[in-house]
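re: ur msg from earlier - yeah i can do the ribose-5-phosphate complex, just paste it... oh wait u already did. ok heres what im feeding in:
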Amino acid sequence: MGERIIFGGSTCQSLAREVAGEAGCDLGKLTIKWFPDGERYIRVDSDVKGRDCIVMQSTSRPQDANLLELLQLLDTLKENGAANIITVMPYFGYGRQDKIFKSGENVTSKTLAKHIEMNSDAFYTINIHKKHIIDFFKIPATELDATPILGEYFKTHGLKAPVVIGPDDGAERLAKGVADVIGCPFDYLQKTRLGPGKVEMKPKKIDVKGKDVIIVDDIIDSGGTIVEAMKMLHSRGAANILVGTVHPVLTGNVISRLFSSGAADLVATNTINSQISYLTVSSLIAEAL
Ligand code: R5P
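and the outut:
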């Protein structure tokens, strides 16, 4: 029996299996069921007394149920005598509620941090929406970077004068991560207010004319951000536009929307399982653990 044992919640079952194999940990056994009214039932079937446990769960759709499942798992492991508990949340949902935009609002990412740390000794996530969320945790918390995985993928595409563009300044660090692997320039789209109701959006420093452009964002949700970015880059003469994201939230018919808007390729990691999750973050997590 190995020292450490990994439990995959509903959102991370195959990823947890991969990580367990790569990190040389046991894969824990769980029973997860739903009562007829939709309430979730959790049972930890492995003996965890005195063992170090790793729990993997993304707070992807259905977010609240998956969050509750994570809290149920953490609490049960603690109650069953686990020694140390590490929470790995490949996708941290609610990251876009990271501050008070209007007084009286709940900072939901902080609420999550408070509840997770109650029964966790350490926390890992991947490319969190805003870096400062990590500081909400009072336990050791680490953000892993999956952009090199996207970079390795796009590197094999034989692109013509590639450039990597983030659709806003927050995505510049993602664009850099991808570009560093490919060995090409990177930039982000800057919005400039030209006058009342008139906003110009363009790459801050790079001319994309005739170039293959890789757009990288942390999340693709409705796809609106990427569609706007593609329109603008095409109008500035970009050749092929390829799109990569770490977290494929993908609400509605976004995949066909992006292809019909001119994306030549669309790829994501498996922090959330989706039709475009071709790239695995298993080694990133296994190495960090
Ligand atoms: C916003 O700041 C995020 O980084 C993403 O750009 C955004 O969440 C994407 O959402 P959507 O696909 O709905 O435009």
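cool cool. The mean pLDDT is 94. ping me if u need the other ligands too
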